UniProtKB/TrEMBL annotation:
GO biological process: adaptive immune response
Entry keyword set: Adaptive immunity, Immunity, Immunoglobulin domain, Receptor, Signal
Keyword Transmembrane helix (UniProt): no
InterPro entries xref list: Ig-like_dom_sf (IPR036179), Ig-like_fold (IPR013783), Ig_V-set (IPR013106), TCR_variable_region (IPR051287)
Source organism: Gouania willdenowi
SUPFAM superfamilies per the UniProt record, alphabetical: Immunoglobulin
Alphabetical list of Pfam families matching this protein: V-set
Domain Immunoglobulin V-set, first and last residues per copy: 43-118
Annotated signal sequence range: 1-19
Protein name, as recorded: Immunoglobulin V-set domain-containing protein
């Protein structure tokens, strides 16, 4: 049995990176289930609801193994089209108000905490946000 924890995060991703207290409120990107269990070899689907999806949004997925820093997995547009993938074998599905990352053949190595973060393209300070994303993504 594979146990996967789905973290509820959005802009809190940056708070985790920079060790700011987690009590800070995030936008409404919510894990459909906070824990997913599956058998080795089965399809594993990690889902987030986000009722503010616009075509301008970009979504980043990360995996965090116990005792390690989060690792970048995949980055995609709101349409579901991939921009960059650091790991092969992952698929993205975007439904109305829901994002899914699909792992076709679950393995014990997939047991971890997963994060999904959104980068809205319109914010008060887009340059600062972009710099934070770039810095977090390059580590």
């Amino acid at each position: 049995m594979i146990n996967v924890i789905i973290a509820i995060t959005l802009s809190c991703w940056f708070h985790i990176v920079f060790s700011v207290p987690v009590e800070i409120m995030c936008e409404e990107l919510k894990a459909v289930s906070t824990e997913v269990n599956t058998l080795t070899g089965d399809t594993l689907t990690l889902s987030y609801n986000y009722n503010k999806i616009t075509y301008q949004d970009y979504f980043y997925w990360y995996k965090q193994d116990p005792g390690k820093a989060p690792e970048f997995l995949i980055y995609h547009r709101a349409s579901g089209s991939l921009v960059e993938a650091a790991v092969d074998g992952l698929k993205i599905n975007v439904k109305t108000n829901q994002l899914q990352m699909i792992i076709s053949s679950a393995a014990l190595s997939h047991s971890a905490v997963y994060y999904c973060a959104v980068r809205p393209t319109v914010t008060a300070n887009t340059q600062s946000l972009y710099n934070n994303l770039t810095a977090a993504h390059s580590h």
